[in-house]
Amino acid sequence: MLNDQRFDAPVIHVVSESPRLEMLQTRLRQAGMRPVPVRGSYLPPDSAPALIDNLTHRSEFEGLDNRLIVTIGKQGLSTVHSDIHLADVAQIESLPARLAIRQRETQRQREIQLRARTAEKFGTTSAPTPVGRPRVLWLGQDAPFMNAIKSSLAEAQVTLVAAISRLTAEDYLASGQFQTLVLCPASADDEAAKLLTRVKSMQIVTIPRVVLLLRPELTSQISREDMSNADQILDLTADLEHIANNLHAVSHDALVERDAHKLPAGMIEDHATGLVSREYLESHLEAQMEQADRLATPLSVVAFTLAPTADIRSIALTIKSMLRDTDLAARLDSTHICITLPETSYRGAVVLARRIEETVGSTLTWRAIERRQFHTLKTLLGGLTAKSPFTRQRTAS
Questions:
Q1: Whole-prediction pTM value?
Q2: By CB neighbour count within 10 A (0-12 exposed, 13-18 middle, 19+ buried), where does 397 fall?
């Protein structure tokens, strides 16, 4: 019986030599990836990431531009700049999560740049100046090196506060005072590991940037899904200065982005809901459609139809709290809220819409559309709000 589904696994090009090549391919397959060995000194034209083995790689390679590079082995042996470095083969288990994190960060940066260009059309051109010092929340037991990292961050004007339990950490995060959360689990089921599992689904106004300090022995014990909840994974095999420098960079960027996401006054914001206005949505959605065409990526939109008696502001805030950084929520009119989901298929849009429906209750109905080539801005938004017999039946019931 043919039950091997690896043809559907994400591809990764592997640069190594026997016998390590065979061993690396086996480990990558076990991690759920599809390794493709590279012969010679030229990587094929492809967007797939490349894994370069420092222990066998010695020559320069062509075709590294615009490609995510992973190196494995001793850091100093390779002249290739890597986006992700794995100290040993045991860390290959965490590679799918690390790649997912990098992909999500790339998407986020693209959306930030796109929003900045859209905002310029409405007269907002100045870059935001961060207010206050970056604040980092730490949760993790058995971490004697925390004080050394805390002192190093203090010299860089970054405040680090340690939470004594998961519940305390959740209370801190709900206050909105921390832009960055550092989790340092000592086991796969301790307080830090449990918070990693649920941090992205917490109903709080601002989801923090999550940094996972990963002990080598936990690589195979923490699930890929949980590791993917982090925005960055730092290995505890690295020196403390490297970890402190990364935390400083992440916390500073998180503070800048917090202020960058604040909407400027005027027609961009719908004051009744705190969402963006329809004018901003239409301008930004056109830019998202152009980008989706250029990158050949999916783009989905969802419209929620509210009952006449519904509290639109309360529902708007609930919807906004359940979105990713890359998603945008806007008020279309008195009864419709629309969200745009870049690089998201119809299936993903339905999953999110159902999750929001379960949270809000029976005061709304929804419709999701994955944008196709024939869609214009007018037909896309018109298709979202047009009433079908099925929609009318659900609304009446």
A1: 0.74
A2: exposed
